[in-house]
Design a protein that fits this description.
This protein has two domains: 139 residues, Jelly Rolls (Sandwich); 66 residues, Arc Repressor Mutant, subunit A. A hairpin with a 2-residue loop joins strand 10 and strand 11. Helix 5 runs antiparallel to helix 6. The protein has a four-stranded antiparallel sheet with strand order 1-8-3-6. A four-stranded antiparallel sheet has the order 2-7-4-5. It has eight helices and eleven strands. It is α+β, with helices and mostly antiparallel strands and 219 residues long.
Length: 219
């Protein structure tokens, strides 16, 4: 576990927990590290929601597929980020989403039941862990509402500009990279890929944006 220390120290779930306490905690929690190949399913829709995942290396993607086979990307997860915590804490019997590895990835899995119920050792840092989990869930709720705000726009153009402005603010710069290719961006915005490409072309021609692959600039 020591080789993952730098990644774990940046994880919001372990905020204000010392390195020594962290390793003791991971032992108490029964944390395990699993490697996944690119496009391998980490959590499948319909499977029981028991574990919290933490990306140690690589990246993952959370998505849903509707009745007609249309895919909607909910979020992209990178190193040190936590996922599936809301579903595990809610103890739902079937995951409403799927999680796949975007690339060869290492994922730490922790049974949520071990977090929500303190162990017999009564570790003092366990309360900090629960506090961090609640804070993380609150932040994710805010981000979810931001996605709703973006995708609720009426047109592809409005959705795209709202998303790019959000990413610009997040990067604190008019020039930034997004974590999606063209198809993934269309899936995230819930729009048609060809229509999205047309709007990007129009915005470039109008001098509103510039872009190259997944790099964008608001002009």
């Amino acid at each position: 576990m020591k080789k993952y220390l730098d990644v774990l120290k940046n994880c919001k779930l372990f905020e204000n927990i010392s390195a020594d306490d962290l390793f003791v905690m991971l032992g108490c929690l029964g944390a395990k590290v699993v490697s996944f190949d690119k496009k391998y399913t980490i959590f499948a829709e319909g499977s029981p929601a028991r574990h919290i995942g933490i990306v140690l290396s690589g990246s993952a993607q959370i998505y849903q597929v509707d009745y007609y086979g249309n895919r909607s990307i909910l979020s992209e997860i990178g190193p040190s980020e936590v996922f599936a915590e809301a579903f595990a804490c809610a103890e739902i019997t079937a995951m409403p989403v799927s999680v796949i590895a975007n690339e060869p990835s290492e994922i730490m899995l922790i049974d949520c039941d071990h977090i929500l119920h303190t162990c017999k050792n009564n570790c003092g840092f366990h309360q900090q862990l629960i506090f961090n989990l609640m804070k993380d869930l609150a932040v994710k709720t805010i981000l979810f509402h931001q996605k709703i705000e973006i995708t609720s726009k009426r047109s592809t153009r409005e959705k795209l500009l709202a998303y790019l402005m959000f990413q610009s603010k997040k990067a604190n710069s008019p020039s930034f990279d997004i974590p999606f290719d063209r198809q993934e961006l269309a899936d995230y915005l819930d729009v048609d890929r060809s229509g999205l490409s047309v709007e990007i072309g129009k915005l470039k021609k109008e001098g509103i944006i510039d872009n190259r692959k997944n790099h964008f600039e608001l002009l």
